[in-house]
Amino acid sequence: MSDLIIKNVGQFFGKGSAPYRGETADKVDIVEADAVLLEDGAVSAFGDFDDLAEGKRDTEVIDASGRLVTPGFVDCHTHAVFGGSRADEFVMRTRGASYLEIFEAGGGILSSVRATREASEEELYESGRRRLVIMITHGTTTIEVKSGYGLDTETELKQLRVARRLADDLPLDIVPTFIGAHAVPPDYKDERDMYVSLVCEEMIPAITEEDLAEYCDVFCDRGAFTIEETERILKAAVDAGLKIRVHADEFESLGAVPLAVEYGAASVDHLAVIIDDDIETLAESDAVATLLPGTTIYLGSGHFAPARKMLDAGCIVAVASDLNPGSCTAASVRTVLSPAAVNLGMTPAELIHGCTANAAFSLDQADAIGTLEIGKKADLCIWNATDVNDLVYRWADPRVYAVIKEGYVIYRDEISIE
Amino acid sequence: MSDLIIKNVGQFFGKGSAPYRGETADKVDIVEADAVLLEDGAVSAFGDFDDLAEGKRDTEVIDASGRLVTPGFVDCHTHAVFGGSRADEFVMRTRGASYLEIFEAGGGILSSVRATREASEEELYESGRRRLVIMITHGTTTIEVKSGYGLDTETELKQLRVARRLADDLPLDIVPTFIGAHAVPPDYKDERDMYVSLVCEEMIPAITEEDLAEYCDVFCDRGAFTIEETERILKAAVDAGLKIRVHADEFESLGAVPLAVEYGAASVDHLAVIIDDDIETLAESDAVATLLPGTTIYLGSGHFAPARKMLDAGCIVAVASDLNPGSCTAASVRTVLSPAAVNLGMTPAELIHGCTANAAFSLDQADAIGTLEIGKKADLCIWNATDVNDLVYRWADPRVYAVIKEGYVIYRDEISIE
Question: Per the structure, how many domains does chain B have?
């Protein structure tokens, strides 16, 4: 395995595996280092360039002078594998169509379910690959990918198999999440209990049998699954050895947050309408509050999660893209950072921790990724920015200079105007 | 001059020079064409590839199969040449700092004025160049650039000279606008009339003497210039042979819209708080309503311009980036389209006309750019998108495949993941 030295690093993020919360969330733990050595896919040493380079004549060297080095971005909430497009529905939304009008025109999540069921595994692979490649070019080195556009056993398995193939083929780590409880499929709308039984008794066993998912997620909200249904599914998932994430409080606070915390959820996501008591509950737990500000912007709802309150209460806050075909098509978590900052009331440091260390913690990978320190994976980005504030301040302007995955340069953005 | 043929175009925007308004704004005028020939920097023919290629063995060919061809984007409101950074102020904003707190901490527009005065022409050139290169990579082929961070004759001239040098050196057309009346400089705060006199009697003559600007703009709003002051400046500008644009109704409706229309303004910009009577006035005029939705998102104010109402009333609506160091750092107009769509209530077709044909009309260049038809400049983009809806629907995902300026391929975005 080849080695790589990054020289003239200047500043670096170094820290242990504990997530950032409270006052620490607004501070970047800086390591001053002239250079960093990456060996065998891991960060192996910080130090003076000449010392690190000694005896390593063939080692590749990248000069990071004047640039910002960060951990590779971790996007801990995506629905990146799906069939079809909902551009038509998007156009209707721009003309003010209501949720009901879109639903009656055949739009909404069920249109993605139809398209995903109809798509071949190869088609899902190709469209998913295209999205993931864009994510890499925006500095992402690890993502979570959910199923949830099948709502039948066969298609849920198909989505997760595609995620596995993508992880095998691309230089990007994928954490797979099963979310059969993403919506109640139309054929079960008068037999919801039967669908929940299908999720618990057929889908979860089939998925664990093939080891296709690490997490089980449930969309617990108005129009999705009730608290009781959610609890049945979480229980079945935990019993089957899956870890837990929950979509909660996007539209209505049903009590999903305390339920998720009770079941040891790694992450509770959305939280646009979270109540103060539940913020306290989250703050006292290790469940990550994963915010999806791109969705609020893309839908034009104006209801941003109360990020400042959560941060001040001591919650572990992550930020993710929510890439999906309906409510947010954002190409990457990097895409949403600048437009979300003032709207969420999150500083650049808080946002960057939200898509690095805290996102890694929510995926149970805090010991491997999310910060740069000796022994962790050599997943990192070199940005055309001077520091974290500059990166988030300039909307879509600072692009990556290089993306490095396990010590390999997997992407370089070389702009050449003729 | 070399020729270029784009083959497998499929669909194309073709139209005359009249701007899109009312119902036409939501329709894309499609030309079905197998190929397009670009000669001598202009669009010279549409037709069958074999016919166009006959006898042109050495002509470069680009295959646009499965991709979208649009006119090059026209960004008709930018402040792309300035000194310094206001990242510190941005961080304060994310923590909820008020305008007054930022002002007292030395932030706001006057901090950009200090930095621009201090910057050498070379520094302004280099930082401006970096921004414009990013714009090109986002499909922009013509931009308007304002001065306004000098607020003294010397620095206003310096900014405009830098804009001219950038236009000379980069494959991007720049329309320069003088906006000495961007803010009242601190040294004149008790002598506003003297500053207006300076703008009218010293700056405007100096700028027209060197032919450094095509337009004169005034920021007419609460905290900026009054209606009376604005009228004095507009009158001086028109008398000096400059064309007119006006920043109006961003914070308060002072009557700037009817005044601007009376003076024959080409564009009235911002319009977040425009009143219904003024929408009617605009709709009956040829002044373009240039909306800057990125600013609303970046500032988190939530007050979007009533775009739907303006479109329905028959206004000519353009959309621009407002790239500037304080209220919106968006890298390009392309950056703001997807997040703005539902918030403005503008369809993809309306948005694309807003940053092509209508923006060109606002810059008095409708006969040369903004749509693709025979005889117009061969400024165009080939996008990794299937159609206009797909381009805007997928947030930051469809990138350009190639940007063509006056018949030359000036940028290709070739993504290669290793």
Answer: 2
